[in-house]
Amino acid sequence: MRSSLYRHCMLLIGLVMPLCGFAQDRPGPDDLSLLRAVNQAASSTSFVGVFSHQQTQGVYTARLYHAVAADGPTVRLESLDGPAREIIRSSDGVRAYLPDRREIRVTPHRPLRPDFPMLFLGDGRELLRHYRVKVKGGYRVAGLETDLIELVPNDALRWRVRCWVERNRKLLLKQQLLDADGSIREEYVFSEIRLGPVSERLVRSRFEGQTGWTQSLSPMRKVTPPAASADLTGGFVLTAALANADGSLRQWVLSDGLATVSLFAERRPPAMADGGFSQHGSLSMVTRQRGDFTVTALGEVPLQAATALAETFPAAWLQQSP
Amino acid sequence: MHQDHSQMPSEAEWASALFDDECDLTDEQLKSLTRDPSVAARYAEFAMISDALHPGGSQQVSSGFQLRVMDAIAREPIHFLPAHQREVRQRRRLVSALAAGVGAVGFVSAAYFVALPGLESFDAPVAMQSPVQNPSLAGVQTVRVQSPWQDPQARKFIDAHGPTVVKMRLESEQP
Questions:
Q1: Would you say B38 and A301 are in contact if contact means Cβ atoms under 8 Å apart?
Q2: Which residues touch A246 (CB under 8 Å, ≥6 apart)?
């Protein structure tokens, strides 16, 4: 009798344990819904907040005005440290106001990557191919109760990401990128935030309408991406292709659904090539000479990923005219 | 440290030996080793720990080893910047030994100790950049480790890469 009971218990454990593991490892609809809710909150919530960013020297603080209208959110980012700077971001592109130079720098296309508090671009499915989702209770951030969402990478080619989201709306309030040792490589965090309607005038630059300003266009323009697809290292996929006016500098924007890497290529004789690698906070940069091209991989990924992408980026894409 | 193929050292041991200028390698072996991303990453960790313990960014480099490295650089731009400051060497060895982790626990503890307080120390440059571009190397005495943010070409790339707040920071924080 005891033996039979023991066998049944073991059988039950044997059946249940794999199911538990399966449930944890396999991204479920709840994970996808949660991640989409975080992005939805970032695009549909109006707020004014002060946040800090730390990746390299010191902490940088900015005020964010985020107003949602029928055609999407418009954002005004105002620097609180150093020289006065303003950036207006909308569906039309990005306008950076540099008052000390009386210059407006215009990027005439949508941002190529998510900006805090947006977590990712796309529908989230790509992200779940490379990260597992863990959710637990978080601490208060900017006076608001949070849940902590951890995105744990499946391999060593990406950072672990911790996201503190406001408990009800799921708005992202704090984000950290961590390495395998648990050291923080980059952090965004709101120190204060007021949720609620934001006047339209607050997302217009205070320098708008002033005379004597010059306007300059970003040298990088979107171009037609390569027709042929390619399997890129780490499951990264191409999300945009850009080039400057004469095609001497090209940029391919790659994403794993969360992390972004830019591949830059310049035609340079090998003798003139610079090489090397560097890392600062979450940002890795690796340069390799590939035939007549100097290829630089730059992104918020570990050095291994940047190195692998710089070395294995498809040669056919390099050869193709922009 | 001699290269023994029968019992290959780990990347942590290689990085530790490089960091302490204890490698007895040919230039070809040195180049091959410095192209290994795992060794590079571990070396960067040692540099970060060392820089956190010895702020200032500049490190005196032994001229003999540096000349060898410079010679290698002339033919291969990927390399390491060895640290060799006598008065701090013992402390650096201690850190390297911890990080080489003859116990992983030792390294993790060191990493936490250095990296977490106030988030200030992940600020420490862990860059290894071609000093060919660095005029301070002309005297073959001092190598200043730079971050990508201090390199004009890298800043151009970072500006194109984003995100928006980083573009804004680049405008505000000129090197």
A1: no
A2: none
Interface test with B, best of A280, A282, A298, A312 (most B CBs within 10 A): A280
Architecture, CATH, for domain A219-319: 2-Layer Sandwich (3.30)
C-alpha distance from residue A80 to each of A53, A59, A208, A231, A298 (Å): 12, 11, 19, 42, 27
Domain ranges of chain A: 29-215, 219-319
* pLDDT, tens digit, 9 for 90 and up, residues A197-240: 999 999 999 999 899 999 999 889 999 988 777 899 999 999 99
| Contact by Cβ (8 Å): A157, A233 | yes
pTM of the model: 0.68
Residues in B closer than 8 angstroms to A220, CB to CB, are: 160
Residue A233 contacts B where some CB pair is shorter than 8 Å = no
What tens digit of pLDDT does each residue of B24-77 get?
566 666 666 666 667 666 666 665 555 444 433 333 333 344 444 444 434 433
What Å distances lie between residue B43 and A238, A262, B46, CA to CA?
31, 24, 5
Residues of A in contact with B110 (CB under 8 A): none
Delimit the domains of chain B by residue range: 5-144, 146-175
**What is the second-level CATH architecture of the domain A29-215?**
Clam (2.50)
